[in-house]
């Protein structure tokens, strides 16, 4: 800290800053000066506008990028359905992919690596809510792949923005706007519609994806924290222009559209953008640079202080999606139960573990590459082992989470679970409750010197001294 010591060194250059207006050219002079769409763009390129928001969105929300490319993105044959019977990642596309809203706390064992599939075919929808057709809600995926995408292939999702959280392996992502190397303890966001290709320079990959069907991710407001801390804007990295000049070979363009897979053929590389300028682009972030804040007196603050990125609903302060992390940090609070408290939440919480051990789940069931889901108002909190340790710990200043990184996808929506997530993956821990919370024991002790009386239903009622206690129980009450 304050940056991750990656085993695999960086190989690309980047532009720094979150939601900044960037411009970059792979060949000097490729960007037009002053105009976006001149009659004849420099170098014989085509000008193409990529809009991530409506033209009329407020200026502070508007996201667009101008691309200067060898051939426009529209130069392809019509799309045709591909594997429509087996490839389905739409949570509301019944009966092909049923989804179940259930109140049970759920936890999954580590998901398997799959060396037989590439990036596109590794996507498994675990849970979600809403509909990409209506541009509302989210989808939560596990990916596990062992093969590079074809050299002449590109993929994009028309359904939403991909927030990618690698857990194992390295993703080398070629996009229309340039290249990203994404390693465990980094995240990247590939906005809706941006074409990309994923290769695996270090072998099989595995991780998590939050697809945002509505709006885009932003940095959370800091309020009384001030102008810095949490994820600082300067630490986000966007690619520089890099292009492939090939108009002699056939390429396949794959599209995830309404949860289904389509393909089209074209006779030129999709990665032919020589220059671009704008604020709609893929980006990545090193979680090791997160500047954690917390209590230096007493009590455990809400986990919202660990929010990296957010996507707000129409009601300010209520998120369609928050991306929250639990990084290594110091705990110094006095006379305080330091792990997260037991709670029930109007938000849904899907958690994953990149590496290490999460400090609220020390019993061993929550493992790297595994996950948990605590849905709307499903009670949860530290397991019995963690509660016992934390209740009796010596409250010295303590560094927790060393070598660990847990995260949470949080949403105000009631998140449903797919058949793959509930049964076909064969990773659900049936003994989650029995291991975590059923072993909890009562520690309640009546104050000495207080009488009690059994009511008609056999429940012991405290008889309080009405001279000293404002609310007291009448001795004649027996129900």
Description:
The strands form 7 sheets. This protein has a 10-stranded antiparallel beta sheet. The chain has 3 helices and 31 strands. It has helices at about 385-390, 420-425, 430-435; strands at about 15, 20-25, 45-50, 65-70, 80, 100, 105-110, 125-130, 135-145, 155, 160-170, 170-175, 180, 185-190, 195-200, 205-210, 235-240, 250-255, 260-265, 275-280, 285, 305-310, 320-325, 330, 350-355, 370-375, 400, 405-410, 415-420, 450-455, 460. The longest helix has 8 residues, at about 385-390. Its EC number is 1.13.11.5. One of its GO terms (cellular component) is cytoplasm. It comes from Rhizodiscina lignyota. GO terms for molecular function: homogentisate 1,2-dioxygenase activity; metal ion binding.
Helix content: under 10%
Shape: globular
Number of strands: 31
CATH architecture tag of the largest domain: Sandwich
- Described by its quaternary structure, the protein is single chain
Main beta-sheet strand count, sense and barrel state:
10 strands, antiparallel
Q: What integer value in Å does the Rg equal? A: 26 Å
Within the largest sheet, what's the order of strands? 1-17-21-14-11-16-9-8-29-6
Number of helices: 3
CATH third-level topology of the largest domain: Jelly Rolls
Strand content: 25-35%
Give the CATH class of the largest domain: Mainly Beta
Uncertain residue ranges: 472-479
End-to-end distance, in Å? 59 Å
Q: What is the average of the pLDDT values?
A: 92
Kindly name the structural category: mainly beta
The CATH superfamily title of the largest domain: Jelly Rolls
- How many individual domains? 3
């Amino acid at each position: 800290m304050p940056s991750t010591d990656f085993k695999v060194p960086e190989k690309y250059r980047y532009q720094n800053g979150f939601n900044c207006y960037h411009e970059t050219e792979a060949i000097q002079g490729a960007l037009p000066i002053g105009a976006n769409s001149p009659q004849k763009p420099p170098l014989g390129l085509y000008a193409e506008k990529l809009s991530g928001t409506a033209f009329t969105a407020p200026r502070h929300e508007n996201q667009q990028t101008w691309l200067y490319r060898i051939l426009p993105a529209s130069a392809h044959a019509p799309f045709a359905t591909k594997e429509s019977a087996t490839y389905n990642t739409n949570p509301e596309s019944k009966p092909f992919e049923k989804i179940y809203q259930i109140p049970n706390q759920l936890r999954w064992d580590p998901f398997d690596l799959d060396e037989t599939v590439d990036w596109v075919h590794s996507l498994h929808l675990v849970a979600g809510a809403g509909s990409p057709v209506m541009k509302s809600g989210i989808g939560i995926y596990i990916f596990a792949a062992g093969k590079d995408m074809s050299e002449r292939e590109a993929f994009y999702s028309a359904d939403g923005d991909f927030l990618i959280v690698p857990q194992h392996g390295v993703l080398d992502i070629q996009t229309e706007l340039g290249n990203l190397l994404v390693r465990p303890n980094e995240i990247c966001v590939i906005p809706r519609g941006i074409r990309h290709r994923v290769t695996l320079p270090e072998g099989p990959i595995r991780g998590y994806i939050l697809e945002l069907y509505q709006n885009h991710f932003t940095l959370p407001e800091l309020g009384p924290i001030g102008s810095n801390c949490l994820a600082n804007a300067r630490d986000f990295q966007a690619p520089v222009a890099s292009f492939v000049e090939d108009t002699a070979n056939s390429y396949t363009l794959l599209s995830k559209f309404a949860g289904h897979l389509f393909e089209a053929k074209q006779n030129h590389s999709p990665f032919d953008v020589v220059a671009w300028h704008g604020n709609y682009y893929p980006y990545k972030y090193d979680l090791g640079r997160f500047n954690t804040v917390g209590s230096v007196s007493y009590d455990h603050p809400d986990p919202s202080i660990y929010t990296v990125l957010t996507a707000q609903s129409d009601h300010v302060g209520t998120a369609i999606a928050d991306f929250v992390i639990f990084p290594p940090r110091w705990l110094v609070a006095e006379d305080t139960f330091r792990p997260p408290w037991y709670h029930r939440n109007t938000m849904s919480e899907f958690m994953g573990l990149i590496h290490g051990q999460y400090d609220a789940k020390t019993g061993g069931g929550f493992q790297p590459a595994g996950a948990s889901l605590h849905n709307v108002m499903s009670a949860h909190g530290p397991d019995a082992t963690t509660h016992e340790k934390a209740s009796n710990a010596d409250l010295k200043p303590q560094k927790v989470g060393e070598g660990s990184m847990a995260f949470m996808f949080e949403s105000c929506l009631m998140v449903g679970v797919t058949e793959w997530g509930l049964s076909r993956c064969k990773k659900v821990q049936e003994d989650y409750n029995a291991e975590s919370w059923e072993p909890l024991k009562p520690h309640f002790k009546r104050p000495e010197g207080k009488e009690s009386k059994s009511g008609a239903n056999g429940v012991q009622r405290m008889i309080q001294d009405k001279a000293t206690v404002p609310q007291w129980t009448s001795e004649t009450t027996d129900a």
